[in-house]
Amino acid sequence: MAVFTPVGDVEARNFLDAYDLGDLIALTPIAEGVENTNYALQAGAGRFVLTLFEGRTDAAALPFCLGLTDWLAQAGLPTAQPVRDRSGAWLGVLNGRSAAVVEWLNGAWPRDPSPVQAQAAGAMLARMHLSAADYPGRRANPVGSAAWRALAQRIATRVRGQGLDHDRAMLDRVEAALIELGDPFTDDLPVGAVHADYFPDNVLFQGDAVSGVIDFYFACTGPLAYDLAIALSAWGFDGAGRPSPDILRAFRSGYDAIRPLSAAEAVALPRLGRAAALRFTLTRLHDRVFHDPSNLVTPKDPAAFLARLDYWR
Question: Domain containing 179: what range?
Answer without folding.
Answer: 115-312
